[in-house]
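Report of the visiting student (M.T.), summer placement. My assignment was to run the structure pipeline on a short list of targets and document each run. The first record concerns Tetraacyldisaccharide 4'-kinase.
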Amino acid sequence: MGRRLRRGGYARPGGGPARAPARPDRHVSRAPGFWYRPPGLASTLLSPLAALWRWETARRIAKGTPATVGVPVICVGNLTVGGTGKTPTVIALLDRLSARGLKAHVLSRGHGGKETGPLQVDPARHTAADVGDEPLMLSAFAPTWIARDRAAGARAAAQAGAEVIVMDDGFQNPALAKDLSLIVVDGETGFGNGRIVPAGPLREPVAEGIARADLALIVGGDNISTITEQIAPLPTLQGCIAPLQTGMPWQGFRALAFAGIGRPAKFFATLRELGVDVVATRAFGDHEPYALPVLKRLEQEALSHRARLVTTEKDAARLPAEWRAKVSVLPVRLELEDGAALDAALDRVLSS
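After the run finished, the structure tokens were exported:
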């Protein structure tokens, strides 16, 4: 691969940690800081609520009757809330399946969209407000379906000709049988303080999650050995999220960067490491819609700095159509250190 796997999940050719935003946006939504520190007073006080969350998740999984739809289902999920790199992992899987000559469809809940589905995403007709930003983005790579009822969505995809279904998130959803479950772990933050929401970032205990998983992907970071020990004996892959080489001359590019993803600081750091002159950064909440007054404010601020607006592919999906030409986009992709274990897992699932 030729890149070191560095802190935060991105392939970073140099530079230090991301600077804090010059003026954090008032709408930003962040995970509580105590989630990523040793358990203390806050996590202890929230333990009763965490116990309820754990009980409800376990009850839902145990009572579920997973449906089968006649085609293989590959689930890309995680054990924590927040961004870990699931969407780039889905794109990488689509590439591998396409190389095998298979017609893969994507299935998503459609978080952030108003439609409940089952519905195939049509980028010419739908917006992120309709179907969610991630499904809208993924529809450029493969036929993509949104459905609150995952089993109904999978049946619709199979009837439309899907030979394999890649489910974006839904590891804790028992409605649909999964032929391969891949959990994605942020190599920097790992499992945080090891506590369940809201006392920590975990959706369920690590031991219970890995018992249902087939494979883990650790994305970037400096805690790979620790995470590998925590999820043993689950087979693991390692990878990083790296900028896609598009020929864009980023070196010296003057930018006001904004992002509403799980961890905006990773995006800002990557821009700087590409040589972008980042004059300011603005962080927004994950999946947060971009209202016109906010965009106009960002545009005026960029003009005052003689800079151009830059964002992520996922954020670009939430922009109004008339604004997309005004904003530059940095696409990123997953790079695997060694994909042999993933290919072997796909061989097992697809051959059966």
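Residues 1-29 have pLDDT under 50 and may be disordered. The two ends are 31 Å apart (CA to CA). I thank the supervising group for their guidance throughout the placement.
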